[in-house]
Input
Amino acid sequence: MAHILRDRVFGSSRRHQQRQPPTETAMPIYPLHDLVSPFGELGLDLSDSELRETAYEILVGACRSTGGKPLTYIPQSEKTDRTPAAAAASPSLQRSLTSTAASRVKKALGLKSSPSSRRRASGGDSVSQGKTKRSVTVGEMMRVQMRVSEQTDSRIRRALLRVAAGQLGRRMETMVLPLELLQQFKSSDFPNQQEYEAWQRRNLKILEAGLLLHPCVPHDKTDSAPKRLRVVIHGALEKLIETGKNNESMQALRGVVMSLACRSFDGSVSDTCHWADGNPLNLKLYQVLLESCFDVNEETSVIEEVDEVLELIKKTWVILGITQMLHNLCFSWILFHRYVMTGQVENDLLFASNNLLVEVEKDAKTTMDSAYAKILSYTLSSILGWAEKRLLSYRDNFNSGNIESMQNIVSLGVLSAKILVEDISHDYHRKRKEVDVARDRKLEKVNLSKRPSKSQNNHLPLLSILAQDISELAFSEKDIYSPVLKRWHPLAAGISVATLHSCYGNELKQFVAGISELTPDAIQVLRAADKLEKDLVQIAVEDAVDSDDGGKSVIREMPPYEAEAVIANLVKAWIKTRVDRLKEWVDRNLQQEVWNPRANKEHFAPSAIEVLRIIDDTLEAFFLLPIPTHFVLLPDLMNALDRCLQHYVSKVKSGCGSRSTFIPTLPSMTRCSTGSKFHGVFRKKDRTHLTHRKSQVGTTNGDTLFGVPQLCVRINTLQLIRLELGVFGKRIVAHLGNSESDIADRMGKMFELSESACMEGILQLCEATAYKVIFQELSHVLWDGLYIGEVSMSRIEPFLQGLEQYLEIISSTVHDRVRTRVITDVMKASFDGFLLVLLAGGPSRAFTRQDSDIIEEDFKFLTDLFWSNGDGLPSELIEKFSKVVKNVLPLYHTDTENLIEQFKRATLENFGSSAKSRLPLPPTSGQWNPTEPNTLLRVLCYRNDEAAAKFLKKTYNLPKKL
Output
């Protein structure tokens, strides 16, 4: 506010404002020591009554002289309308008060008529003597206004008649009035000796003040007159002097007084006596005279006869050295001073002072008088200093009931500062004590009474309350104060909210710096700050809608709190903390997980239950966070949880192997010796041993982490996670609600990576389980037992028995939605194993064409196991995956010569003309097919006849054994 009054100047303002009716609410009454008088101190012990009596003497004396023009206050705009009659009027102390017309001065200053003044003007206060009425004269009214007794008035008039009789035609400004009065009176003219002594001492003090302490013309250091006068006056103050005309002491006093009073600036003897026109004596006396314009019975009212009173007062100008400029300045000060002295209740006085100050502004632009500039500077600085204190704490001093006072004070302060800066700036820019009162007062004003008690503080953080109070403060600023201040500054509300924004921002910055984690209190404070900022920016934008830059300059002074960004960062940190803890939990607990199918009836890992519970709790806690932007920050949470679940899935399937892990390395191709049958290699008791091992396969690896039951639990665990992901999606949609349906749909798909990982993991585990069963758990009855030696003695029954046991384990353990997949993979693995035995079983296996019936029968037993009389896998599924085996089995019925021809033909088709001279050895692709050279070659390798052995010996020189 101080900058508005002083350093920001001061756009065009309405100089003559329309007066508003006074409000009933009074401003606080400030002590008068809060207002420094600009006229200085006299340095003498003169009471107010003594000054009034001296001023009255000067007034009566001046009015008995001729000459001078009447004084009426007329603004510049009305001066051309003045009539010659008004200018020539000559007021008299004895003129009767009979006019009832409204005062032109009061009208010009915007002062209303007071009831008592109207009554007096209409004769309501006339003096009655019996049945006749005596009209009140101007002189009598002035006596009453200046609180001078009739006895004193009579004595003064009698003395002045004597003076006039002795010095006929001499003007009052050519006399030293106190000196003349001292010479005219004796103690017999007073009711008692004490009153006479007080009267004489007063006049001597006035002479001392006017000629010694505050002379109009400075003393010459070589002049001895001041010293002689001081001796005379101090002697007279101790012992009264004789005041007769021819008295020696009186003649000495007259001589030295006149020598000092008649001095001039150029050294000549002046006709005018300078005894009361030095500052501040003349201003103190003139202040007393101007104060008579106020009703003695109603201190806040200017009398209706102010025009006539001012006409009389103007008569004293020549004696007191007052000019129109000084009068305007003094009268403005008197109106302002009376407003403060009477408790700041009558806004008309402040309004009138401001309007009169407009004339002072004009005067200041036209004068180069340094003495006037000094008085002007002191006066305006005093007014401005007082106004600044009120306005810097304007929220303490003004409200909706007395806002007119603020308007007038701002106007007065702005105009005072404008005159100081523009017209007498060299004096104004003296060293001033600057304080940031505005910020401190605004912070203090944030209603401390609303601060919560200890119990409330647990639920409502202090900065939240502060934000609410500042918001209320800003809106009251906008509604009550800014409309007033906007007349002097186009962005008053914007500057106010920018100040509040800065104040709260400093507090918020410290708060944010101390936040280490997301808490409800932190969120509440940040949300309150965000709402406050939106309110303040809205006010600033609305206030600046008509400004040149649209309020950009103010908005630049309001760096954003970025509360939403702080909330987002806190939530992201909260998410990271939660997810990091979950990941640590996963790593720690999966190391201890035993994947025991007996842990629960659903046969999935307890760790999965806990992981899903933690995720559910995290989602629930997230949506319970008191933030407005769940849907914005939810992707961060979902992505983090998605990664965490992927990590869990990765850990679940880690180390479980795959198809290639369990398929044995294929042995090198060999040829069979003609008629070799491994009769007796496996005796009966050995085959019994194989059957016994088969009965133990369900338990041999039961305590390992990667046994078949444990793999089934892992499959179930991933399937459980898959199902729960859908449940999470539905819960998220429910939390977001219909208003964000599109976002909710997207959120429901945010676990796609985890779902895909689960699906891949299930497929990998199903395949790993299947090939583990066939090639590891049942290797002894398949790879090491089936068709070893004599085919008819080592058939598929032991393998089928072991396989059936594992299928029972899988069926009773694996989730029903995944069971078919696992059994299908087991079937595929068993078909692969059956073909590997036939095509890559090593030199211990050899087949004749007659063995083909046994082989086909054994394969039918294998497929029937999976069909299980219609209770197993669908026949279509079995047919689909058994097709490769069924296509290869007819080769075992084919005679050797045809096989050799088919092989040569297939090789030529695959290798072209390069195969005509020498058949190349076809590579093993593992994609068995009756037309594929490697498949045909392997059937020949295991064909137990001489033709096949010769062909293989001749063509490839294959050995009989490894």
